[in-house]
Each structure stands twice: as structure tokens, then as C-alpha cells.
Amino acid sequence: MIIKNKDFHDIHPMHLHGHSFWVVGLGTNYSDISRDTFNFEDPILKDTIAISRGGWGALLFTTNNPGFWM
């Protein structure tokens, strides 16, 4: 999943209810997203990240926690 923060004034904290995720890429300009720069070898496992102003984050996660999530 790629999350874009199109707000150029505020950093946006990103989390998934009920799941952790691997961060395979982060960037400060959402026009520079390139799969060639993603880290699929040893991505860090997180439950929250900060998406910078006008930036993006590329996440991998397993949908293994069924339920009603906000």
C-alpha cells in the first residue's frame, strides 16, 4: 500500500488498526515514488510512521487479523 500525504502543511501519523506493517519505502515528494528504491530485503516492522509534508510511505502488511476495524 502506498500512502500519500497531499497536505503540504502538516506531517501525518499513519497507523493501521489491528495490524503492524513493514515499511519498504519513505519519501518526501510523492512524485518521486519508485519501486526500484523499495527495501524488500530487510524492511523495518512498525505500527506507526510519520508521513512527511507532501511525502509518501510504502507499506506491506498481512491481513491476518479479521474483525471490525475503524
Describe this structure in a few short sentences.
This protein has 70 residues and is mainly β.
Secondary structure topology:
Blueprint: E1 2-4, E2 12-15, E3 21-27, E4 44-46, E5 48-51, E6 56-60
Antiparallel strand pairs: 1-6, 2-5, 3-4, 3-6
Would you mind describing this structure in some detail?
10% of the residues are buried. Strands 1-6-3-4 form a 4-stranded antiparallel β-sheet, with no helix packed on it. A two-stranded antiparallel ribbon has the order 2-5. The model has no long low-confidence stretch (mean pLDDT 91). Helices cover 0% and strands 37% of the residues. It has strands at residues 2-4, 12-15, 21-27, 44-46, 48-51, 56-60. It is mostly beta strands and 70 residues long. It contains no helices and 6 strands. It is globular, with a radius of gyration of 12 Å.
Summarize this structure as a short list of keywords or feature phrases:
70 residues, mainly beta, two-stranded antiparallel ribbon
Which descriptor suits the 3D outline? globular
Strand content: 35-45%
Class inferred from helices and paired strands: mainly beta
Major sheet size, sense and barrel closure: 4 strands, antiparallel
- With helices defined by DSSP (H or I, 4 residues minimum), what is the helix count? 0
Rg (CA only) = 12 Å
| Number of E strands | 6
Succession of helices and strands: EEEEEE
Mean pLDDT: 91
